[in-house]
Amino acid sequence: MPRQRASQARDAFARVGTAPVPGAAADDDASEPAAAVNGATESPQPPDVASTAAAPPPPSEASPELDAATLSRWRWQLGATARKAAAARARADAALADWERLAADAAAGGVPRRLVVSAAADADLDPPADT
């Protein structure tokens, strides 16, 4: 099984476009096109559309300066989104505190522990620690 994985990994890396030359030192920076290493004649496969669509484009070092209006829009959007995330985190913290209080009240009221654990599992939460 490990040999099969190794050959699959070697084949996958070879399809990327370049592969290290067998026997070359790591600091030689020697590489050949994948077709030359594998003996293949076809062109390399294009990148997967799903993986390239999710990644933002790399920043260009030669990008022009942004004008004041564009910077203002970015500043507003970034600030508004950061405040929205902070508010959502505060609401989530408050809801978690309410959940822990309710679970403690249920335990004090004699509700079976399995009911609290079941409710926590349904909500994908960790059950509160026993007190």
Could you characterize what this model shows?
- The structure is a single chain.
- The chain is mainly α and 131 residues long.
- 58% of the residues lie in helices and 5% in strands.
- It has five helices and two strands, in the order H-E-E-H-H-H-H.
- The chain has helices at residues 2-15, 34-38, 49-54, 68-108, 113-122, and strands at 18-20, 31-33.
- A two-stranded antiparallel sheet has the order 1-2.
- The longest helix is centred in the C-terminal third of the chain and has 41 residues, at 68-108.
- The protein is flat, with a radius of gyration of 28 Å.
- 1% of the residues are buried.
- The model has no long low-confidence stretch (mean pLDDT 75).
Question: In a few lines, what is going on in this structure?
Answer:
With 131 residues, this protein is mainly alpha-helical. The protein contains five helices and two strands; from the N terminus they run H-E-E-H-H-H-H.
Which characteristics define this entry?
131 residues, two-stranded antiparallel ribbon, 5% strand, mainly alpha
